[in-house]
Amino acid sequence: MTHADHVYAVVPAAGVGRRMGGPTPKQYLSLDGSPVIRWSLDALLVHPEVRGAVVAISPDDDWWSALNLGFDKPVDVVQGGAERAQSVLNALNWLHDLPTPPSWVLVHDAVRPCVSPDELTRLLAVARAADDGGLLASPVRDTLKRQNPGVERVSSTVDRTGLWHALTPQCFPLVRLRAALQEALGAGQQVTDEAQAMELAGYRPALVEGSRLNIKLTYPADLSLVECILQAQRDDSNT
Ligand SMILES: Nc1ccn([C@@H]2O[C@H](COP(=O)(O)OP(=O)(O)OP(=O)(O)O)[C@@H](O)[C@H]2O)c(=O)n1
Ligand SMILES: C[C@](O)(CO)[C@H](O)COP(=O)(O)O
């Protein structure tokens, strides 16, 4: 497999963690002695098809360099943007300028430390078999209610048929995703994941079922849940 066939991880890590609160951005909170971002990067870099990672951090980030993290694969840092999509595009631009850019990218939130090797393997196999790429996602299992703004009462029940929770990683051809994000951001379109940018460009990404345990650390209550999941994954790997 040539370098160009390899996959490169793109890790947006420039958020402030407003919903988590506290002085430390959630990607740098400690889980069982390691920062969240280390768990997420290790989960990606352990996969043999992932050649390296580029991490987008805030211009005000004082945590990354202080961590002095070492990896056995290349991990580079770029400046993130005001929105997650811009952070991702900045990383894609850096990859595009490499002497031999990777053909595919695996975009993964720095705050999803519980992604499993099996999910990566299944996503890479399906996404790269289709030019439109693909994403990990989880089918909606609960009845969904909609509220009217400012009123904590049900306004309606939303039909959940065909609805999925988008997760990450999301895997796309570097050239196509970079162009799709440039087009969406250039048009002032708010996109909250890479698949949405690809959809706006006319692609139909594959849905690859991911684990409900692949949660995004968002609120304080998520911390203990993520620690339990990571412990359970370690216990499983030791059996
Ligand atoms: N301008 C931004 C905003 C978010 N992210 C990253 O995108 C991922 C998912 O975003 P989210 O969970 O929304 O993180 P925050 O934006 O930090 O959270 P909040 O919305 O609560 O502030 C995180 O790894 C976050 O660091 C980023 O790279 N650049
Ligand atoms: C990309 C994402 O994880 C897909 O569910 C999610 O959109 C990121 O969270 P955000 O709060 O929208 O930045």
UniProtKB/TrEMBL annotation:
Listed EC numbers: 2.7.7.60
Superkingdom as given in the UniProt entry: Bacteria
Biological processes annotated in GO: isopentenyl diphosphate biosynthetic process, methylerythritol 4-phosphate pathway
InterPro entries: IspD (IPR001228), IspD/TarI (IPR034683), IspD/TarI_cytidylyltransf_bact (IPR050088), ISPD_synthase_CS (IPR018294), Nucleotide-diphossugar_trans (IPR029044)
Pathway entry: Isoprenoid biosynthesis; isopentenyl diphosphate biosynthesis via DXP pathway; isopentenyl diphosphate from 1-deoxy-D-xylulose 5-phosphate: step 2/6
Site (Transition state stabilizer): R19, K26
Cross-referenced Gene3D superfamilies: Spore Coat Polysaccharide Biosynthesis Protein SpsA, Chain A
SUPFAM superfamilies: Nucleotide-diphospho-sugar transferases
Keyword vocabulary terms for this entry: Isoprene biosynthesis, Nucleotidyltransferase, Transferase
Annotated positions for site Positions MEP for the nucleophilic attack: R160, K216
GO molecular function, one term: 2-C-methyl-D-erythritol 4-phosphate cytidylyltransferase activity
Catalysed reactions, as listed in the record: 2-C-methyl-D-erythritol 4-phosphate + CTP + H(+) = 4-CDP-2-C-methyl-D-erythritol + diphosphate
NCBIfam families per record: ispD
Family affiliation: Belongs to the IspD/TarI cytidylyltransferase family. IspD subfamily.
Biological function: Catalyzes the formation of 4-diphosphocytidyl-2-C-methyl-D-erythritol from CTP and 2-C-methyl-D-erythritol 4-phosphate (MEP).
Name of the featured protein: 2-C-methyl-D-erythritol 4-phosphate cytidylyltransferase
Organism listed in the record: Natronocella acetinitrilica
Highest classification ranks of the organism: Bacteria, Pseudomonadati, Pseudomonadota, Gammaproteobacteria, Chromatiales
